[in-house]
Amino acid sequence: MIVAFSISPGTADETGSVSDAVAEVVRVVRASGLPNETNAMFTNIEGEWDEVMAVVKQAVEVCTAVSPRVSLVLKADIRPGFTGQLSAKVERVEERLR
């Protein structure tokens, strides 16, 4: 499965930024060892249901350490038997654009 998620603390630093907290979330995702990518709006992670959800839970816990309120947006593509789809889905679209 692929999960696209965004976690943001409900409180920001003195400049209005949430990048320190988001960096800690991304650190958790990268340390998981699961295939992942981060863009301006979401972090995508690929793996089995339990391992992906465990990473999302840990990421939320890291964020709650700096903010008493956390926002989580999550979208999942659940397709049993398929792996490597984080890049394969994009490649299939790019092929059709040629």
Automatic annotation (TrEMBL):
Membrane spanning residue stretches: none
Domain annotation Thiamine-binding protein: ranges: 3-94
InterPro entries given in the database record: MTH1187/YkoF-like, Thiamine_BP, UPF0045_domain
Gene3D superfamilies linked to this entry: 3.30.70.930
GO cellular component: cytosol
Cleavable signal peptide: none
One Pfam family this sequence matches: Thiamine_BP
Family indicated by similarity: Belongs to the UPF0045 family.
Name of the featured protein: Thiamine-binding protein
